[in-house]
Amino acid sequence: ALWGDKEARFVRAEGDLDTVRDLPALDELVKRTSKNPDLARWRAELEKRQTAISVEKSLAVPDLTINAGFRMTGMPDSDVHGYGFGSDGISRSTASIRSDGNWDNSIVLGLSVPLPLFNRNQGSIKEAEHLMMKVGEERRETDVQLHAALTESYQNLSAAFAAITSLKESILPAATQTFASINEAYREGKFGYLDVLDAQRTLFEARQQYLDALASYHENIAEIERAIGESLWNTDKVKPRPEEEK
């Protein structure tokens, strides 16, 4: 499910839990949040709202209607028939008038422009503008939340990295050495069995703290990489392991 498939296409998943690296600066990571998918989608939404505003403003400008055609008079029924073709399509009109019986054909040109005295689409324009502002505020909210999540993950990552360094360089070696010394002294009869158990418990607790710190380190790496939308480090500069080179 994590790989987005119903069946595993690999034999096993490999990883090196002990691999840790120095951390980039937080300011550098903040600059890289522009690639975050949660922020990227708001750019498309802003463009959509801007287009909606342009459409609503265009509807406030009245359409110009032009008609052209011909008119015949003098029919026995004393009607006037008009045919035309304009920007609103083909039209036909009939009107009753008094006719002297003479035929009269004429070309008719018409031009009409609605006057937007009462409806200038101001309501729809205002609505589109407010929706644009709403999208901007929602994007800003997402940016603030993303920065807060990134800062929290970075603080947790820094704490885990410091714990790993301390445990690996001083605490674990000291606990291992103490356990070995007490165990050896126990065999020589200098310490009791409870002393051995106490030293062993201290060593196991240190190992557990080390594993917990490593797990926290890698979990927060994943959270930060999600926030910035890419790998924390430039993968081009990472040397592959021998089995990867093969």
Description:
55% of the residues lie in helices and 14% in strands. The longest helix is centred in the middle third of the chain and has 66 residues, at 122-187. The chain has a four-stranded antiparallel beta sheet with strand order 3-2-1-4, with no helix packed on it. It is an alpha+beta fold. It has helices at residues 26-31, 37-59, 122-187, 193-228, 242-245; strands at 65-73, 79-86, 89-96, 104-112.
Number of helices: 5
H/E topology pattern: HHEEEEHHH
Strand content: 5-15%
- Average pLDDT, rounded to a whole number, is 79
Alpha-carbon distance between the two ends: 28 Å
**Helix fraction by DSSP (H/I, runs of at least 4):** 40-55%
Helix/strand structural class: alpha+beta
Gross morphology is rod-shaped
In angstroms, what is the radius of gyration? 40 Å
Major sheet size, sense and barrel closure: 4 strands, antiparallel
Low-pLDDT ranges: 236-246
Largest beta sheet: what is the strand line-up?
A: 3-2-1-4
Q: Could you give the count of β-strands?
A: 4
Features of the shown structure:
single chain, 246 residues, alpha+beta, four-stranded antiparallel β-sheet, 5 helices, 4 strands, 55% helix, 14% strand, rod-shaped
Short summary:
The chain is an alpha+beta fold and 246 residues long. Helices cover 55% and strands 14% of the residues. The chain is built from five helices and four strands; from the N terminus they run ααββββααα.
